[in-house]
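> example.struct
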């Protein structure tokens, strides 16, 4: 529905040409209400409130605002009284909506059920995308997933129906593509229980990945807390061309800022180069901003977003955004905490890896680097798709490369898989021939799901421990992430580069300069791919896979069997006893990188995401123990035997002994999975002490009543040994900004004291004292 003023103007123009002029009442010139989504016709976009709040903050701060600030501050619970200081104060915000993927939605909905509330307070959706394992192809894999996950899907569907949450069935597609197609819009504040929620920044929204407990707060109608983000500006000049793609922008940025360079900040892209990037290309860039630790990323509203909104059936949102465009772009003269400039005209195709997404190389150099480092140059598998790169444009560019190879009688030398981002994308690329071309070149089209990107891959071509290389268009390449093989060297790049490398079969191929040999023996070069950013015809929606929450929810029931191995109702964690944490054993002192994949592995463990006790059997099994250099092997301080980490933690818990984890830099980077916080709490952990934390994981730990603490002096990491005992003292005076003391007791009887910092505010201290944020919520309800 276009705004009434526009309709009235058009009506008057038409009628003025006729015999009779009609009077149109001024009241009709009020702005029309525009729904957030056609799935929720009674939930409206509230740009008026956004405008009102921005004006209040503008007046208070008396300076130009970045776009990030406009949207974030535009959603303040109390814009008049809220303290606002980038990187320091905590903001109380009112998000517009919540999105949850099926692996994290289980625990989020279990927590919401525990809250005792009758229904969600904001529009919310569940998306079934994580539990479908890639094996044989889309149809068979989806059928198998529906069978083995029936109990979980039924729980999520009935919980959604009972509490007013929309439910996207398995086969719908990946959560972030569904959000882009249906729910994201310029100026939205959306939180999602997945770290790649920032994908929605491609449509000009602030979309932030969180843990399930944060989602419960918002669904319960409680203001959501976020540390006021700093803002890093990325100024884009020039324009993309040739083999360079939007993916190369974020791969370049990751190489500059590293995996922790964006921590505590929003990445805001701006500048004249923005207009050379499609809306879905902008989403790709924002999506992978999670890999540099950013709170989120976004682009300013422009004609590319308007075009995408119109093509996905939301022209009325685009028209409304046009009216409020001044609030959907940064103010002239706004200042950034850090500024990076990238000339897109000079940007070369990139490929990052292995084992970390910030190890950046140009495609031209990676083969040489691989040979020097001893990385396998032969590519076993090329994989395109994922939430990062599965748009119509992505598939079109990959198909353009494949079509050239087929014209010369070639197919992929490497295995090749294709993951459509949504049912709409799948149906449209089937109709328009892209899927057929990708199959003809050797590709296997997988289900509309996360699949190998998150370790849901029943890989058969290699054995565990066998050194090999894969190339993907995914976002993460941590050790063992895709196939549970620590010797798989995974590289991330654009879909078109993956396709070209899969055809050549080697990292040593550079499509910009190198030639291939056709079936006729003649040399030829691949031309840079060109494809439409959006289909010429309308999108084909494919099968209807959405379940609306019923209007009458009175008869809805949610059953969780007490004997289930997949689902388990939650018991509240114990409250703090008012005492210092004394003589805690060190479960493990972690050496080096420790992501949420190391803390709570995905892959085969995904089936236990709704059963806290069962999934706790994967606690820290991927982390490297500094004592012996091994994974999942720690010393039991009570019997001196080495054993698995979860077993040791359970032994301590059974004997009433509190324990602590000591970690390195950027502890908990990666996924938003709150299981990495729930598991240590469930098994008796009380504190995690590190050099630094990733944002989401630090918050998740606080939510579950744990103490995430950092060394005041990072060198103190070296003072602690796995056989020591640690005491955290001063908790009776626990206060924001006040460091805590840690007494290290060595086995020889000596001891030393170090200082630990924290980022707790008053509300978060209440979570710790109550035992968890959920416990605190219940206390407040009772009062």
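> example.seq
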């Amino acid at each position: 529905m276009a705004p009434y003023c526009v309709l009235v103007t058009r009506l008057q123009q038409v009628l003025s040409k006729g015999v009779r002029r009609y009077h149109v009442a001024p009241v009709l010139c009020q702005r029309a209400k525009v729904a957030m989504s056609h799935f929720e016709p009674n939930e409206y976009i509230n740009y008026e409130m956004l405008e009102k709040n921005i004006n209040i903050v503008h007046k208070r701060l008396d300076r130009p605002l970045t776009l990030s600030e406009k949207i974030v501050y535009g959603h303040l619970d109390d814009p008049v009284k809220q303290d606002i200081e980038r990187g320091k104060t905590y903001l109380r915000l009112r998000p517009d909506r919540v999105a949850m993927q099926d692996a994290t939605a289980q625990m989020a909905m279990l927590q919401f059920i525990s809250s005792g509330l009758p229904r969600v307070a904001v529009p919310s959706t569940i998306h079934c995308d994580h539990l479908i394992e890639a094996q044989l192809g889309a149809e068979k894999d989806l059928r198998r997933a529906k069978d083995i996950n029936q109990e979980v899907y039924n729980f999520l569907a009935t919980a959604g129906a009972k509490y007013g949450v929309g439910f996207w069935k398995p086969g719908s597609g990946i959560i972030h593509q569904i959000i882009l197609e249906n729910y994201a819009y310029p100026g939205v504040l959306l939180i999602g229980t997945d770290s790649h929620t920032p994908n929605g920044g491609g449509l000009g929204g602030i979309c932030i990945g969180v843990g399930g407990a944060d989602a419960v707060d918002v669904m319960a109608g409680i203001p959501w807390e976020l540390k006021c983000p700093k803002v890093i500006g990325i100024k884009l000049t020039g324009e993309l061309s040739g083999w360079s793609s939007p993916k190369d922008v974020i791969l370049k940025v990751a190489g500059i800022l590293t995996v922790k360079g964006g921590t505590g900040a929003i990445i805001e892209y701006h500048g004249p180069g923005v207009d050379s990037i499609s809306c879905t290309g902008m989403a790709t860039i924002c999506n992978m901003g999670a890999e540099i630790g950013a709170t989120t990323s976004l682009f300013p509203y422009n004609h590319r977003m308007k075009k995408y909104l119109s093509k996905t059936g939301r022209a009325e949102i685009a028209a409304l955004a046009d009216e409020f465009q001044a609030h959907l772009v940064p103010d002239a003269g706004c200042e950034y905490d850090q500024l990076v400039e990238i000339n897109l005209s000079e940007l070369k195709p990139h490929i990052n890896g292995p084992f970390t997404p910030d190890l950046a190389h140009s495609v031209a150099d990676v083969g040489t680097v691989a040979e020097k480092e001893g990385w396998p140059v032969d590519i076993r598998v090329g994989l395109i798709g994922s939430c990062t790169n599965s748009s119509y444009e992505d598939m079109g560019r990959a198909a353009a490369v494949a079509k050239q190879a087929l014209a010369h009688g070639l197919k992929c030398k490497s295995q090749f898989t294709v993951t459509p981002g949504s049912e709409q994308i799948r149906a449209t690329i089937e109709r328009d021939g892209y899927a057929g071309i990708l199959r003809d070149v050797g590709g296997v089209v997988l289900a509309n799901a996360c699949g190998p990107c998150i370790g849901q891959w029943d890989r058969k071509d290699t054995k565990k421990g066998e050194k090999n290389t894969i190339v993907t268009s995914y976002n993460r390449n941590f050790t063992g992430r895709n196939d549970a093989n620590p010797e798989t060297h995974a590289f991330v790049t654009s879909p078109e580069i993956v396709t070209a490398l899969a055809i050549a079969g080697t990292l040593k191929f550079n499509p910009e300069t190198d030639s291939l040999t056709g079936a006729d023996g003649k040399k030829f070069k691949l031309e840079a791919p060109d494809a439409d950013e959006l289909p010429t015809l309308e999108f084909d929606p494919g099968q209807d896979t959405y379940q609306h929450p019923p209007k009458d929810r009175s008869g809805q029931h949610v059953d969780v069997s007490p004997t289930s191995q997949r689902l388990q109702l939650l018991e509240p964690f114990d409250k703090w006893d008012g005492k210092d944490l004394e003589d805690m054993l060190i479960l493990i002192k972690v050496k080096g990188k420790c992501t949420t994949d190391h803390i709570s592995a995905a892959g085969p463990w995904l089936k236990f995401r709704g059963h806290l006790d069962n999934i706790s059997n994967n606690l820290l099994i991927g982390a490297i123990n500094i004592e012996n250099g091994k994974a999942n092997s720690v010393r039991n301080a009570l019997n001196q035997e080495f054993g698995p980490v979860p077993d040791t933690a359970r032994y301590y818990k059974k004997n009433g002994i509190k324990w602590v984890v000591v970690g390195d830099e950027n502890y908990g980077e990666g996924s938003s999975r709150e299981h990495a916080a729930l598991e240590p709490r469930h098994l008796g952990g009380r504190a995690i002490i590190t050099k630094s934390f990733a944002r989401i994981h630090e918050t998740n730990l606080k939510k579950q009543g744990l103490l995430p603490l950092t060394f005041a002096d990072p060198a103190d990491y070296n003072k602690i040994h796995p056989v020591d005992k640690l005491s955290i003292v001063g908790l009776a005076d626990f206060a924001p900004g006040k460091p805590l003391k840690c007494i290290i007791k060595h086995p020889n009887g000596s001891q030393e004291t170090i200082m630990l910092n924290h980022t707790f505010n008053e509300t978060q201290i209440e979570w710790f004292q109550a035992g968890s944020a959920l416990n605190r919520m219940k206390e407040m309800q009772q009062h």
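> remarks
The first strand starts at residue 35 and ends at 37.
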